[in-house]
Design brief:
- The protein is α/β, with parallel strands linked by helices.
- The protein folds into two domains: about 80 residues, Methionine synthase domain (Methyltransferase, Methionine Synthase (B12-binding Domains), Chain A, domain 1); about 120 residues, 3-Layer(aba) Sandwich (Rossmann fold), CATH 3.40.50.280.
- It contains nine helices and five strands; from the N terminus they run H-H-H-H-E-H-E-H-E-H-E-H-E-H.
- The protein has a five-stranded parallel sheet with strand order 2-1-3-4-5, sandwiched between helices.
- Helix 7 links the parallel strand 3 and strand 4.
- The longest helix is centred in the first third of the chain and has 22 residues.
- It is globular, with a radius of gyration of 17 Å.
- The two termini are about 30 Å apart.
- It binds CO-5-methoxybenzimidazolylcobamide.
- The site of CO-5-methoxybenzimidazolylcobamide has 38 residues, from helix 3, helix 4, helix 5, strand 3 and strand 4.
Amino acid sequence: MEILKEIANAVISGDRKKVQELVEKALKEGITPEDIIDKGLLSGMSVIGERFKKNEIFVPEVLVSARAMQKGMEILKPLIAKSSNVIKGKIVIGTVKGDLHDIGKNLVAMMLEGAGYQIIDLGIDVPPEKFVQAIKENKPDVVGMSALLTTTMSQMKVTIDVIEKEGLRDKVKIIVGGAPVTEEFAKEIGADGYAEDAYSSVELVNRLLKVS
Ligand code: B1M
């Protein structure tokens, strides 16, 4: 669909105003928020990722595009969040220590919230102690960790070890995700599950908590 391509292009050029206008227009045309995210916003962001990788663009340009994408997500979030009062479970989520990437984590949190989970978002650069404190305070069913850097993936293991040391490991299910993370890595560090994207993180949590 043409408008989804336009949304992707507006993310690529980092035009927040245009993203906002186009997302609103797409909704009026009856396109679902999921398609707008997948085929519009994320499609644009993946072009940015490729260009960043090839050193064709640098951090400031990536940030401008990331902000444009977040603008679109802001509009879509309330539409994805379910109107149901029934809370299926509580989830503490955060990007691990040393890592500032939060677009994917926010998307995962948004989808989980939309699926009926209560989210306690600890933000970015979250040290293990902060995860532990949040478990003690909120008694969540699930702890979710996100990492986008190969150098910060190891913090997931460090965090699990600290949770274990505090005697809290059997109180929560732990899930991990992020571009460099794999199913194999998740098993290796003793997580309960790995999700490749925001949609599968909902399936994963439903499965782990045995809810539908
Ligand atoms: Co960064 N960055 N970045 N960056 N950045 C990557 C990750 C990189 C792959 C780019 C590249 O070189 N190809 C590379 C990492 C290389 C590596 O480690 N192997 C990289 C680098 C090197 C860096 C810096 C070191 C650059 C520098 O300063 N020289 C620096 C590090 C800062 C830090 O964290 N300490 C840095 C900074 C930044 C920005 C601040 C500019 C910006 C982040 C803005 C923000 O997040 N607010 C940024 C961005 C945007 C990217 C890319 C381009 C895009 C990431 C993104 O948002 N993708 C990225 C390249 C890429 O990934 N192709 C890159 C869209 C998002 C929806 O996908 O995050 O994968 P993703 O999330 C998915 C899944 O992974 C999964 O579901 C999500 C939705 O489908 N998922 C989970 C994620 N978390 C999950 C948790 C779950 C389950 C699923 O359960 C809990």
